[in-house]
């Protein structure tokens, strides 16, 4: 029996064959198991003789099975190692690296330039109350400026008569929130997302503005002009002249739209040279009503405010003709302009 099984185990070709042999020898009805059952019928003397032998046989067969199983596994692994191999001399696959979106880059750059001039960053919510977005800024409900803004209104429950919240149409409400919390004097910018229902080559329903607010006892339009010219010169990396045109905003008095010097020759816009002008922002001296909305005494404090399109100046800097492309998330486009991964 011993030779029979040890021989068969040595010759087994695979694990399945081994398992068959185990059942034949040591399974419930296996040859060795049956013999062990016979032990009960023997006399004590016979059992003393046969018992240890059978146990030893059982152990030996079990050990042979385990050894053969390990040997088979080793052989299988050897086989695989020979068949599968890795060519470590092949060049690696190139990996693309992610980069910062142009609008985010400009946002950060704008923040850094104003920080150099002592401006801190203020923030406000994108879902704004009617009061912060309009009334506090001297735009009462019947004012035409409301209609012009293409405002997105939030839904109110049936029977709720309160004025609806809006997606802020500009960053100007952050002026009021900042005044309420920190008072005067102050020097802050408020970059952020704003929303208007408008869509064409130069308008998207979501876009970015940066608001500026400086309050003090004698801050004037001259300070505004210096700050803006310093900003544009730093941002475009060349001296940039500005032109102030008298305008009207409900929240500033007087108000000015500001153009930067540029040339349109050859179909591309070049900033800082030529005799053309391009409008880039609205500004003015903060209206006394607006100061009062923010809890500030207009007899003691005055200052300027401005609001500028971040996407707009990003388009100018990188020569991008269509604003909508900023928000298409098309990696080919981003790569073409040197941004994409
Ligand atoms: N809020 C104005 C706009 O969105 C810009 C502006 C800001 C003008 C501050 C004057 C002062 O068009």
UniProtKB/TrEMBL annotation:
<comment type="similarity">
    <text>Belongs to the class-II aminoacyl-tRNA synthetase family. Phe-tRNA synthetase alpha subunit type 1 subfamily.</text>
</comment>
<keyword id="KW-0067">ATP-binding</keyword>
<dbReference type="Pfam" id="PF01409">
    <property type="entry name" value="tRNA-synt_2d"/>
</dbReference>
<dbReference type="GO" id="GO:0005737">
    <property type="term" value="C:cytoplasm"/>
</dbReference>
<dbReference type="GO" id="GO:0000287">
    <property type="term" value="F:magnesium ion binding"/>
</dbReference>
<dbReference type="GO" id="GO:0005524">
    <property type="term" value="F:ATP binding"/>
</dbReference>
<keyword id="KW-0030">Aminoacyl-tRNA synthetase</keyword>
<keyword id="KW-0479">Metal-binding</keyword>
<keyword id="KW-0436">Ligase</keyword>
<dbReference type="InterPro" id="IPR010978">
    <property type="entry name" value="tRNA-bd_arm"/>
</dbReference>
<dbReference type="InterPro" id="IPR022911">
    <property type="entry name" value="Phe_tRNA_ligase_alpha1_bac"/>
</dbReference>
<keyword id="KW-0648">Protein biosynthesis</keyword>
<protein>
    <recommendedName>
        <fullName>Phenylalanine--tRNA ligase alpha subunit</fullName>
        <ecNumber>6.1.1.20</ecNumber>
    </recommendedName>
</protein>
<dbReference type="InterPro" id="IPR006195">
    <property type="entry name" value="aa-tRNA-synth_II"/>
</dbReference>
<dbReference type="InterPro" id="IPR004188">
    <property type="entry name" value="Phe-tRNA_ligase_II_N"/>
</dbReference>
<dbReference type="InterPro" id="IPR002319">
    <property type="entry name" value="Phenylalanyl-tRNA_Synthase"/>
</dbReference>
<dbReference type="Pfam" id="PF02912">
    <property type="entry name" value="Phe_tRNA-synt_N"/>
</dbReference>
<dbReference type="GO" id="GO:0004826">
    <property type="term" value="F:phenylalanine-tRNA ligase activity"/>
</dbReference>
<dbReference type="InterPro" id="IPR045864">
    <property type="entry name" value="aa-tRNA-synth_II/BPL/LPL"/>
</dbReference>
<dbReference type="InterPro" id="IPR004529">
    <property type="entry name" value="Phe-tRNA-synth_IIc_asu"/>
</dbReference>
<keyword id="KW-0963">Cytoplasm</keyword>
<dbReference type="GO" id="GO:0006432">
    <property type="term" value="P:phenylalanyl-tRNA aminoacylation"/>
</dbReference>
<feature type="domain" description="Aminoacyl-transfer RNA synthetases class-II family profile">
    <location>
        <begin position="113"/>
        <end position="341"/>
    </location>
</feature>
<keyword id="KW-0460">Magnesium</keyword>
<keyword id="KW-0547">Nucleotide-binding</keyword>
<comment type="subunit">
    <text>Tetramer of two alpha and two beta subunits.</text>
</comment>
<feature type="binding site">
    <location>
        <position position="253"/>
    </location>
    <ligand>
        <name>Mg(2+)</name>
    </ligand>
</feature>
<dbReference type="GO" id="GO:0000049">
    <property type="term" value="F:tRNA binding"/>
</dbReference>
């Amino acid at each position: 029996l011993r030779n029979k099984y040890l021989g068969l185990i040595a010759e087994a070709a695979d694990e399945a064959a081994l398992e068959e042999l185990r059942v034949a020898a040591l399974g419930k009805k296996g040859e060795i198991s049956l013999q062990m059952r016979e032990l009960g019928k023997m006399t004590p003397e016979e059992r003393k003789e046969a018992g240890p032998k059978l146990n030893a046989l059982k152990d030996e067969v079990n050990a042979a099975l385990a050894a053969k199983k390990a040997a088979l596994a080793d052989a299988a692994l050897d086989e695989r190692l020979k068949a599968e191999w890795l060519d470590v001399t092949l060049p690696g696959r190139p990996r693309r690296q992610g980069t910062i979106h142009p609008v985010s880059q400009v946002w950060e750059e704008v923040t850094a330039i104003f920080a150099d001039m002592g401006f801190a960053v203020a923030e406000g919510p994108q879902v704004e109350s009617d009061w912060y977005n309009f009334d506090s800024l001297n735009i009462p409900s019947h004012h035409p400026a409301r209609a012009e803004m293409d405002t997105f209104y939030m839904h109110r429950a049936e029977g709720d008569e309160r004025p609806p919240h809006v997606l802020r149409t500009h960053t100007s409400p952050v002026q009021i929130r900042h005044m309420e919390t920190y008072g005067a004097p102050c020097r802050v910018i408020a970059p952020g997302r704003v929303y208007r229902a408008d869509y064409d080559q130069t308008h998207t329903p979501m876009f970015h503005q940066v608001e500026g607010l400086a309050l003090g006892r004698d801050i004037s339009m001259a300070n505004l002009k210096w700050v803006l010219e310093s900003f544009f010169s730093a941002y475009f990396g060349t001296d940039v002249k500005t032109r102030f045109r008298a305008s009207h905003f409900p929240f500033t008095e007087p108000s000015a739209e500001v153009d930067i010097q540029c040339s349109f020759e050859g179909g591309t816009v070049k900033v800082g040279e030529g005799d053309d002008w391009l409008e880039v922002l609205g500004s003015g001296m903060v209206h006394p009503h607006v100061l009062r909305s923010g809890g500030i005494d207009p007899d003691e404090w005055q200052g300027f405010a401005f609001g500028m399109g971040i996407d707009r100046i990003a388009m100018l800097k990188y020569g991008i003709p269509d604003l909508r492309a900023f928000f298409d998330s098309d990696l080919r486009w981003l790569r073409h302009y040197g941004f994409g991964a």
